[in-house]
């Protein structure tokens, strides 16, 4: 079972370059999320999609855009990367319901020079 | 606003017990607990809901005080495999994701 798959796992960008992080889940989950993790800061929500066709801003959305391509896929785009966006990015998904836990992908480590 | 976790770090000997606390300034519907090992993704441990419902692994225990908006994770007879960073995540009840604390680093020594 693949679960939540993220690509790429590692990426180095120069300031001003753009890139898209891809995320796909095979668990038929309605909700999908993008978090970033920085040392000492925990996980912070960037954007989420409660269901196919909807997206909403989280705690730290500036500099990012997202697309919920279909029920399986949720991508995160950096239009003009900045060094402050150097981080580890996690995609997660969850089913609908009161006791629905998050399933995380393995993470994508992004470095912006 | 992020929930506050305490302590920030704990060092234990194998077999000792630990308690990790999570406190929020907002009314909570649920509290989640996750463990993350270095270089890996967070892994689900437990959910505690307002009203008393729980879901999680058998060997993990936790409490949720709705009035105080606090939760505690209890790790008893710790094993080396318990080492990692523990995160609590809180929800007000919608499908808008969890707000995570900054984490508690747990080191278990033989």
Structure, explained:
The complex is a heterodimer of chains A (113) and B (110). With 113 residues, chain A is mainly β. In chain A, strands 2, 4, 5, 6, 9, 10 and 11 form a 7-stranded mixed β-sheet that branches. In chain A, strands 1-3-8-7 form a 4-stranded antiparallel β-sheet, with no helix packed on it. Chain A starts with a strand and ends with a strand. Chain B has 110 residues and is mostly beta strands. Chain B is built from no helices and 11 strands. In chain B, strands 2, 4, 5, 6, 9, 10 and 11 form a 7-stranded mixed β-sheet that branches. Chain B has a 4-stranded antiparallel β-sheet with strand order 1-3-8-7, with no helix packed on it. Chains A and B meet through strand 4, strand 5 and strand 10 of A and strand 4, strand 5 and strand 10 of B.
Secondary structure blueprint with pairings:
The complex is a heterodimer of chains A (about 110) and B (about 110).
Chain A lengths: L3 E4 L2 E4 L5 E7 L5 E8 L3 E8 L6 E2 L6 E5 L5 E5 L8 E8 L8 E2 L3 E5 L1
Parallel strand pairs in A: 2-11
Antiparallel strand pairs in A: 1-3, 3-8, 4-5, 4-9, 5-6, 7-8, 9-10, 9-11
Chain B lengths: L3 E3 L2 E5 L4 E6 L6 E7 L6 E7 L4 E3 L4 E5 L4 E6 L8 E8 L7 E2 L3 E6 L1
Parallel strand pairs in B: 2-11
Antiparallel strand pairs in B: 1-3, 3-8, 4-5, 4-9, 5-6, 7-8, 9-10, 9-11
